[in-house]
Structure formats: structure tokens, C-alpha cells
Design brief:
The chain is α/β, with parallel strands linked by helices. It has eight helices and nine strands. About 30% of the residues are buried. The model has no long low-confidence stretch (mean pLDDT about 95). It binds adenosine-5'-diphosphate and guanosine-5'-monophosphate.
């Protein structure tokens, strides 16, 4: 059985990556969404074990110490990290996995798993990004300002990703990300077993 493909999706907070990823998961339930651990407080409507595992700083540090994290980082004053075992188990069972993580974590995963495919979702502008964060209404003005301040540096790092997709019109962006994911699964570096198999028959 082929191993699943590891996809990393990043975007400045408020760009719409959560909205896009939800739609991708809805249309293909076989894709596994990696539920991260975080020390940030749940937003209204967020569920433990679904959106994140909401844990204390002590629990988070213990997970790092025991080697349970594939990667972790501190972002806007909170810890975020990817639990390792679930990701590797799902990839080994042939399922594709999506990590929705920020840029530092993304680069650490790329270093540890060079076969991972990274996709950066761009907002049309910082002005529109602020508008979306305000419209979402889940963060205080102070948190929104911190996130906008981070966004420019994150967009600079988009050059390090394999693919860039702009989320201007939502439906087009969803289609673009789906197309990128299908195309990436055909990369020769992810298909050496298939190529070997054909060569054996030649
Ligand atoms: P992120 O996960 O990147 O922080 P969200 O998915 O929560 O962002 O989206 C932030 C807000 O922007 C939400 O209110 C969402 O409905 C809205 N949104 C997402 N994509 C678009 C788009 N293309 N045009 C306008 N609003 C959008
Ligand atoms: P939010 O607080 O808006 O849910 O997430 C803030 C940022 O942390 C987003 O860019 C999100 O993608 C990122 N993030 C979420 N989970 C993880 C994780 O496990 N690791 C890393 N490095 N970043 C994460």
C-alpha cells in the first residue's frame, strides 16, 4: 500500500485557511486533519479534540519532553504543536494528512519530512485580512493587531513553500487548493514505488 501524502497548509490568521480546509475535508472524508495541541483558550464554538487539544503549559512541556511532538512553536504568546503519533499512523495506513500550521512549524516539518508538500494561502491584502478578522469576531482588537503584525513576516516566508494560492474568491481558492493537492500527489518524488513497479514489468 502507498504511504499517504503529508500536506502542510499555512496562511496568516484570518486568511481563510480554516474555511478552505473544512471544505476539503468535507468533500474527502478520507483525508485526516491533524488536530494540534495548544495552550491558547478555546474560541466560542471550538471543541476540545476537534479543533485543538486545549492543554496547559505544563502538559504541553511534558509532551515535548517525552518526544510526542512532530514540531512545536510559540505564536502570539501561546504554544502550538503537532502530535507525532497520529500523523505517522495515518500516513502509514495510506491516508493523506493535512497539517494546518504556521510558518516556523512548517519549515521544521519540511526539514524532518522532505517529502511533505507545502501550500501557502495568501490574503488579497493586509487590509482585507484585518476586515476578515474583524468580521469573524473571535479576537480582541489587541489580538487582531498582533496577528496583523505577524502577517507580513509570514507572507515573506511564502516564498519557501512549494505552492502559493490566493484566497480572494473563496470558491476559486478551494478549487485551486484541491487541484494543487491532486497534482502534488503525482510528483515523481512521491511515486518511486509506482515507477519501480512498472520497471519490474518491463
Ligand atoms: P483562518 O483559519 O485562516 O484564521 P478563517 O477560515 O477563520 O481564517 O476565515 C476568517 C474569516 O474570513 C471568516 O469569517 C471566513 O468566513 C472569512 N473568509 C474566508 N475566506 C473568505 C473569502 N474568500 N472572502 C471573504 N471572506 C472570507
Ligand atoms: P489560531 O490561534 O488562529 O487557531 O492559530 C494561530 C496560528 O497557529 C495559525 O497560523 C495556525 O495555523 C497555527 N497552528 C495551529 N496549530 C499549530 C501547530 O500544531 N503547530 C504550529 N507550528 N502552528 C500551529
Amino acid at each position: 500500500m502507498n504511504r499517504g501524502t503529508l500536506f502542510i497548509i499555512s496562511a496568516p490568521s484570518g486568511t481563510g485557511k480554516g474555511t478552505i480546509v473544512s471544505e476539503i475535508l468535507r468533500s474527502d472524508p478520507n483525508i485526516y486533519f491533524s488536530v494540534s495541541a495548544t495552550t491558547r483558550a478555546p474560541r466560542e464554538g471550538e471543541k476540545n479534540g476537534v479543533n485543538y487539544f486545549f492543554i496547559t503549559r505544563e502538559e504541553f512541556l511534558e509532551l515535548i519532553k517525552t518526544g510526542g511532538m512532530l514540531e512545536h512553536t510559540e505564536f502570539c504568546g501561546n504554544f502550538y504543536g503537532t502530535p507525532k503519533k497520529a500523523v505517522y499512523d495515518k500516513l502509514d495506513s495510506g491516508r493523506d494528512v493535512i497539517l494546518e500550521i504556521e510558518t516556523v512549524g512548517a519549515m521544521n516539518v519540511k526539514a524532518a519530512c522532505p517529502e511533505a508538500v507545502s501550500i501557502f494561502i495568501l490574503p488579497p491584502s493586509l487590509y482585507e485580512l484585518r476586515r476578515r478578522l474583524e468580521k469573524r469576531g473571535t479576537d480582541s482588537e489587541e489580538v487582531i493587531s498582533r496577528r496583523i503584525a505577524e502577517a507580513r513576516a509570514e507572507i515573506e516566508k511564502s516564498r519557501l513553500y512549494d505552492f502559493a494560492v490566493m484566497n480572494d474568491d473563496l470558491e476559486s481558492a478551494i478549487k485551486d487548493v484541491k487541484n494543487v493537492m491532486s497534482a502534488a500527489k503525482k510528483l515523481t518524488k512521491l511515486n518511486s514505488d509506482m515507477i519501480e513497479g512498472v520497471l519490474k514489468k518491463c
